[in-house]
Recover the amino acids of this structure.
C-alpha cells in the first residue's frame, strides 16, 4: 500500500517538473494534484491496451493517484490498473490506488440479459439480499461490499487498497428514506472499519455524484456532518480508536461548481459548501469530471479561460478544478498516453490563489 516514505520519495523524483503545490498532503503521504480516472470506454481489449499505456505513462510521469471502480467497464478497468501498476517503474508504496463498490458489476462484457445475470450471479448465490437492491443494480449491504472488496483486491492484484469508496449512496434514495440510507451507510462503514483493521484497506470514503452538492431539500441530498457522525459511530462499534473515513469524491469543474457554491452542510459557523465543510472536517477531496468527460477539453467559458494558465482548454479546465480550496487531487480520465502527456503538462502551471479563484465567481 501507499506509505509516507514511498510517496515522499515519489515526490522527490518528480516535483521539480511541476509548479507550486502540485504535490499535496494526503494524511502523512503526498499525492499528485492530478489523478488518472478509468471510467469511460467500451469493455474491449483495444480500450484495455489504451488504458494500460495511459496508466503506465501517468505513473512514470508524475501522477501517483489512480482511481477506478469494480463496475467500470465490466471489471476491466480494475484489472488493467492492476496490470499497469505491476509493470510500471514505480513502487507499490508510491501510489494511492482507489476503487469503489456499490453497483453490481458485469464480468468482462455486458450479458445479453443483465437482470438475469444479477439474479443468477448475485441474488441466487446470496451475495446480495434481494431487499437490499435498488434499481436492480445497486446495494450497500455489508455482505455485498465484502464480496466486492475481495474481488477488487484480486482484480487489482494488491494486498491493500489505499482508498475504498462506497459508490453513489444517493442511488438508494430513489426507494428509501434518508434516515434508512444513513443507517445503511453506518452498517457499511462498520464492515469497512473491520476490513481496515484487518489491513485489507487503508481508508474508506464516499464517492458521490449529487448528494453533497445539492441543497438540503433536494431528494438526493445527504448531509456530510451526518455521514461523518455515522462513520465515527461505526468505528466505535467495531472498537477502532478512530474512524478510517478519509475522503469524499464529487464532481467539480467550470460548469459544475456546486461543491463550492452551494452551502448545504450545517456547521457551528452556519451552512457551508461541501468543499469547505470537508476541509474543516479534515477530509480529503478528490474531484471527478474535471474536464466534464471531455466537453471542457474542447471549449471553456471565455471569461473563465482568461484567468487560467495552460496551453489547451483541457489544461486550463484541470487547473481550475485543482485550484478549488480543499481539493487534494483532480481526477482526469485518460485512455491514451497522449492524453496523459497533455494532462501532466497542466501541472507545470501554478494553480490559482484563493483570491483569484474567488474572482472567477464575481
Amino acid at each position: 500500500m501507499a506509505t509516507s516514505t514511498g510517496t515522499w520519495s515519489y515526490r522527490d523524483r518528480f516535483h521539480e517538473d511541476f509548479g507550486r503545490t502540485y504535490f499535496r498532503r494526503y494524511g502523512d503521504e503526498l499525492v499528485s494534484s492530478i489523478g488518472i480516472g478509468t471510467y469511460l470506454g467500451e469493455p474491449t481489449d483495444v480500450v484495455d491496451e489504451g488504458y494500460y499505456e495511459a496508466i503506465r505513462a501517468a505513473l512514470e510521469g508524475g501522477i501517483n493517484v489512480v482511481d477506478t471502480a469494480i463496475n467500470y467497464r465490466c471489471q476491466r478497468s480494475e484489472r488493467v490498473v492492476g496490470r499497469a501498476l505491476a509493470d510500471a517503474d514505480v513502487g507499490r508504496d508510491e501510489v494511492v490506488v482507489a476503487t469503489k463498490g456499490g453497483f453490481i458489476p458485469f464480468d468482462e462484457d455486458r450479458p445479453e440479459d443483465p437482470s438475469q445475470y444479477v439474479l443468477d450471479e448475485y441474488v441466487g448465490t446470496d451475495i446480495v439480499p434481494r431487499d437490499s437492491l435498488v434499481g436492480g443494480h445497486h446495494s450497500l449491504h455489508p455482505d455485498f461490499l465484502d464480496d466486492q472488496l475481495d474481488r477488487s483486491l484480486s482484480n487489482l492484484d494488491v494486498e491493500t487498497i489505499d482508498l475504498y469508496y462506497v459508490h453513489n449512496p444517493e442511488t438508494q434514495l430513489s426507494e428509501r428514506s434518508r434516515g434508512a440510507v444513513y443507517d445503511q451507510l453506518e452498517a457499511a462503514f462498520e464492515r469497512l472499519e473491520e476490513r481496515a483493521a484487518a489491513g485489507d484497506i487503508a481508508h474508506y470514503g464516499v464517492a458521490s455524484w449529487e448528494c453533497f452538492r445539492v441543497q438540503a431539500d433536494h431528494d438526493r441530498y445527504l448531509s456530510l456532518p451526518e455521514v461523518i457522525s455515522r462513520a465515527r459511530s461505526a468505528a466505535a462499534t467495531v472498537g477502532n480508536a478512530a474512524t478510517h473515513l478519509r475522503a469524499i469524491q464529487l464532481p467539480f469543474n467550470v460548469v459544475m461548481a456546486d461543491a463550492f457554491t452551494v452551502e448545504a452542510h450545517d456547521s457551528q459557523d452556519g451552512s457551508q459548501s461541501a468543499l469547505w465543510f470537508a476541509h474543516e472536517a479534515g477530509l480529503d477531496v478528490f474531484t471527478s469530471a474535471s474536464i466534464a468527460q471531455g466537453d471542457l477539453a474542447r471549449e471553456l467559458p471565455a471569461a473563465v479561460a482568461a484567468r487560467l494558465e495552460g496551453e489547451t482548454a483541457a489544461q486550463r479546465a484541470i487547473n481550475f478544478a485543482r485550484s478549488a480550496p480543499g481539493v487534494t487531487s483532480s481526477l482526469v480520465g485518460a485512455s491514451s498516453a497522449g492524453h496523459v502527456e497533455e494532462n501532466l503538462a497542466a501541472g507545470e502551471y501554478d494553480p490559482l490563489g484563493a483570491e483569484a479563484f474567488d474572482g472567477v465567481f464575481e
User: Anything to note?
Assistant: The chain has one domain: 4-359. Residues 4-359 form a domain with the TIM Barrel fold (CATH 3.20.20.100).
